[in-house]
Design goal:
This protein has 118 residues and is α/β, with parallel strands linked by helices. The protein has two helices and eight strands; from the N terminus they run βαββββαβββ. The strands form two sheets. It has a four-stranded mixed sheet, covered by helices on one side. Strands 5-8-7-6 form a four-stranded mixed sheet, with helices on one face. A hairpin with a 7-residue loop joins β2 and β3. 18% of the residues are buried.
């Protein structure tokens, strides 16, 4: 088997309106049309998609260091600007324990997002 690219990641959320605010407003992602018959929202991030899927519950982080939990990572052009954007919306932030230029945040359901400057 030869996998040629990663197409999307599905993220479980319990409150679609709160999740849309976080991903669409705070992170600034572009919503795309979807035709599925269950609640959710799709976002386009470059050539990649994020699928928010409504679920009754979501897994919560198990480790104090957020990077040691399941998470999805994105590259940002300016980590300081990204950090300030998150702070402007009162989002939780944890810097990378490794000392590299990266930080972690959580969406309203506790899903962890890593942002790093490459």
């Amino acid at each position: 088997m030869q996998i040629t690219q990663c197409l999307h990641t599905a993220i479980l959320v319990t409150d679609l309106e709160q999740a849309e605010h976080f991903y669409g407003t705070v992170l600034g992602w572009s919503k795309i049309d979807r035709s599925l018959k269950y609640p959710g929202t799709w976002y386009q991030v470059g050539a990649y998609q994020i699928h928010l899927i409504v679920a009754p519950t979501t897994p919560k982080p198990q480790h104090e260091k957020w990077g040691r939990n399941p998470h999805i990572a994105f590259s940002v052009a300016d980590l300081d600007a990204a950090k300030q954007q998150l702070l402007n919306y009162n989002c939780p932030i944890q810097t990378s324990a490794s000392g590299r230029a990266a930080l972690f945040t959580q969406d309203p359901d506790g899903n962890i997002i890593e942002l790093s400057q490459q």
